[in-house]
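hiii so my PI (J.) wants the whole complex modelled not just the main chain, which honestly fair. so below is everything: four entries, each one labled with what it is. i double checked the lines twice but i was tired so who knows lol
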Amino acid sequence: MAIVRFTKQRQAVLEVVRGSTEHPDAAHVFDAVKQIVPSISLGTVYRSLEALVQEGHLIQVQQPGQATRYDARLEDHAHFMCDACGEVFDVLIELPDLVGLVSAKLEGFGVKEARVEFHGTCRRCKHSN
Amino acid sequence: MAIVRFTKQRQAVLEVVRGSTEHPDAAHVFDAVKQIVPSISLGTVYRSLEALVQEGHLIQVQQPGQATRYDARLEDHAHFMCDACGEVFDVLIELPDLVGLVSAKLEGFGVKEARVEFHGTCRRCKHSN
DNA sequence: ATCGATGCAAACGCTTTGCACTCTT
DNA sequence: AAGAGTGCAAAGCGTTTGCATCGAT
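here's the output for the full assembly
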């Protein structure tokens, strides 16, 4: 499903995610977008996010048992998830070529992507106890 | 929540996951366990799986937008998820020490775990088109 | 004017939970 | 006998979808 019409709703959704550093989920995007387009519905937020992901303008960040979050940072990167506060941090560090490593071993498989997700305690949570 | 009573339901749930190579989700476990304990309910399957995870007898495998799957293989390992058929494969390959790598860079963070998830096309799906 | 996008509300799938009852300990 | 575990059904939550209407092209 390609975006063929650039409505104010989709522009607003994209702006909100781009302007956020917190990897917002659909509900947070909804709240923020309402300030720009008060009449927007949650369904439209979901449809817009999906379209923007398909178009390659956003990526999804999944956290076990939580709502899908969205990230406007398109370069390949990992995420750190704080198990205490739930916050998600970008990990902008060059990692080894895992796809190459695994491709060599998984004969006949088409390995396209490696997603890396770190877990632990963030700086703030670690220091506040 | 520790398991303080080993009921036949929990034993059956653990046996089913241990005896499966397909990383079953709660519904699949439910279907299989019914052959052993016909009266079991889905709620009990969920509670048993949760307890077994807490106790360290099972781990969870999450696939974006899909039901949580369970894995009785306890050693640290990655997973390969086929984007075509949805099947999940264990990746039993020694990977670089990502936690150490990232710990050195994320000053003040307590990095405990790195989860690695490969995506692409499995052997069967790749060869059938 | 077309037909993709929207708003609304209902429905969905997975999971959790309240309650009375059961059965391991 | 105590209270953790069970079965059942209802509810919860994130997400999707049907439909009539709106509006970008």
